[in-house]
Amino acid sequence: MRYFIGMDGGGTKTKCVLADENMNILHECSGGPSTFILIGVETVANTLYNLIRECVEKVNLKFEDLEAVVIGTTGAGRRSDAETLEKGFNEYLQDRDIKLKNFRVESDARIALEGAFAGEAGSILIAGTGSIMFGKDDKGEIHRVGGFGRFIGDEGSGYMIGRKGLMAAAKGFDGRGAPTQLTNILEENFGIDDPSKLITEIYKNNFDIASIAPFVIKAAENNDEVCETILDEESENLVLHLRAMKKKLLVHGMKVSLIGGTISTDNYYSAKFREKVGKFLHEVEIITPAYPPHLGAVIMAKNL
After folding, report:
1. Which of 84, 92, 113, 281 is the most buried (most CB within 10 A)?
2. What does the domain layout of the chain look like in residue ranges?
């Protein structure tokens, strides 16, 4: 029997699963964050070591019994960054005279794609704080749309919705734009009741811009025309992601799995987006993921 470990890492925790070659789960556990670019390779390496050790000890295995370990984590989208953690963790193990046959670092989006379609062809659209889309064609090649970050991208994301909401509120404070419930929302929830406080929060206090997105969605549900317009524009931007990916994959019918709180939960924005997909993209089918991301990492480990 062969054994594999898959991990799904993020800014708050890292989920780990040990499975056999038949995808039977033998042990699951979780540990601290694995955002190595922010908290350092040494800290993350220690977390990964403890997770792997717990898995092998629980089922009476050794590190060398593992065929492969794959972690998908935030900040590993570029191969050079992923290799930084790979090198650091391998050195960490060498210092302890421990050997792993295969250790691979991938992006969190990559393992989500593999999990959603059980390793087969398909696409995922991620719209949380940021936005990006990945697709895998029938030849196994990976294609990408978006993901240019908050300065020149992230269309359709929580950040962009929040940013437009704050811009609308700023215009509302000045009388330059149409009235919006967002001015009252800022006062009631954040104590921001005039332009100077808004400027201070944004430029001095590192205000979480994406945190406004749920309030924009709520205001749209309450018939706020300004917020309805914002969500109409941003849902259209997500539709453009789908159109672009369809061209890259060269397929007639395209299956897509949705990831991220803004579009995977039941709300005004996700409903607006799904409505547009159903109306304008009949050949696109939105599906539920086959497996969660950490099992997508197991699938990738099996393929190493």
Report:
1. 113
2. 3-117+291-302, 123-287
Q: Residue 180's pLDDT band (boundaries 50, 70, 90)?
A: very high
Q: With cut-offs at 50, 70 and 90, classify the pLDDT of residue 52.
A: very high
Domain 3-117+291-302 identical in fold to domain 123-287: yes
Rounded to an integer, what distance in angstroms lies between the CA atom of residue 55 and that of residue 29?
8
Does the domain at 3-117+291-302 match CATH 3.90.1150.10? Answer given as no
* Backbone φ, ψ for residue 107 (5° rounding): -75, 155
Instruction: Give the closest residue to 103 by CA, choosing from 143, 44, 37.
Output: 44
* Cα gap 293→10, rounded to integer Å: 11
CATH code of 123-287, in short, is 3.30.420.40
CA 299 to chain centre: 18
